């Protein structure tokens, strides 16, 4: 009876700044940003408002130095001219790192085996889009994107000892 109750297994859904329904929509909105033409105020209409969109990090020129020059072997001269100019502008330069996406996880299999930790199977799906924008004097001067157009994975964890597996981690905590 319990093996047919797959609907009782946990599911999760995580949305991060979902202005767009998929990676292609996020990329299309990003492609409408034109360096040296788009302003920070224009970003809101494209779904990239750095002041209201969740999961947006506002970066100072000092943060950008750490981001673009993580070690001494990378010099300012090695960077893209737009990045170099923005960093050189100091307080007139800001960066925006924006992350958007959706992740879903669904457990499958036997409820009894899952509940008692004998076997847990799950599938993951979704997408993630990341944009980095640099603004100098309120005008976007540089843009860069990345991410994962399609997240697709499966986990299958088997514990032959079921609930006893992992007790070596639980017991020391109980004793203390």
Structure description:
This protein is α+β, with helices and mostly antiparallel strands and 176 residues long. Helices cover 24% and strands 36% of the residues. A hairpin with a 2-residue loop joins strand 4 (119-136) and strand 5 (139-158). Helix 3 runs antiparallel to helix 4. The protein starts with 10 loop residues before the first strand and ends with a helix. The model has no long low-confidence stretch (mean pLDDT 82).
Helix content: 10-25%
Number of strands: 5
Helical segment tally?
6
- Main pleated-sheet profile: 5 strands, antiparallel
Low-confidence blocks of residues: none
Q: What is the CA–CA distance across the termini?
A: 40 Å
Give descriptors for this structure.
176 residues; alpha+beta; five-stranded antiparallel beta sheet; 5 strands; elongated
In short:
The chain is α+β, with helices and mostly antiparallel strands and 176 residues long.
Summarize the helices and strands and which ones pair or pack.
Layout: E1 11-16, H1 23-31, H2 43-46, E2 56-59, H3 61-68, H4 81-88, E3 93-108, H5 111-115, E4 119-136, E5 139-158, H6 167-175
Antiparallel strand pairs: 1-3, 2-3, 3-4, 4-5
